[in-house]
């Protein structure tokens, strides 16, 4: 039986989480089902339109219609509410186990806990939180305990930086570092120059400017990797692109190392314990090449440089919408102790023709996304392997 999930806030992340869940529920994964959505500022017909059409990620691949109860997506009802107070959303009525809190408003433990009053069991905040425990898949998700009811998926930038920093720190020691994220504009920015009393630069038009800004993403790495606390800080440069961002990590290593050794180590991690989270590429990539990439961080091996054996600049791309939204769902899978969407044994869209087949029955390299196999989907019965 699928676990039932609700979404509060149907903005960029809320809709992309929905799209990710739909894609994998209908193709490769039947364990997660979005059954209810709440957004006080979007009526149902408009929600259907916004879900169907997306300027960045294209048209929704599925059937969407408006019903008496909300939306009907591929024949399944998604109940739609417009409550301003999270405590009034009847999650329990629809058997919702987990709520994705994606409004950007209820980001503290106290505020997000209001969803528990409506019947939810767990709340995942799709933003950094001042006090809720933060988890980054591939980095510290193993520290999650069942008594934690409200948690944060950190930020998209922390999800990109932390896996990279972990590999460097685990293998060479990360003495200190400065991060800059060259980040696509977001909904909080202005289409034309306008008032922004707390951030004057942030009030300038997003489509015409490179805008220096602050970010807590680098410092947040110290919360998910305690040994790096106080060793990283950073800033953001908002640029006139709609999606896909890139992290520039300039760092000092404790052990002497060549850039080639760093590349080899990151490549090995991307094919091993961080497969599906950390990527590796030697291609001459530009930002649009990563649009829709589900990984948290894609290391650009040909873009980095080294000054000497202890001082390097590392470049890693990330789809700040799609990859981050995938990790939100992965955290839910972590709660359930089932294979997350990034699980290497899930196989690819080319390998999903038949359920209930174990790894041992697959042909070829089961860890490769394009593995040649006679079967496609790795059943839940194999989850413990």
UniProtKB/TrEMBL annotation:
Superkingdom, natural source: Eukaryota
EC number: 1.2.1.12
Catalysed reaction, written as an equation: D-glyceraldehyde 3-phosphate + phosphate + NAD(+) = (2R)-3-phospho-glyceroyl phosphate + NADH + H(+)
GO terms classed as biological process: glucose metabolic process; glycolytic process
Keyword hit for NAD: yes
Lipid metabolism listed as a keyword: no
Subunit comment: Homotetramer.
This protein's name: Glyceraldehyde-3-phosphate dehydrogenase
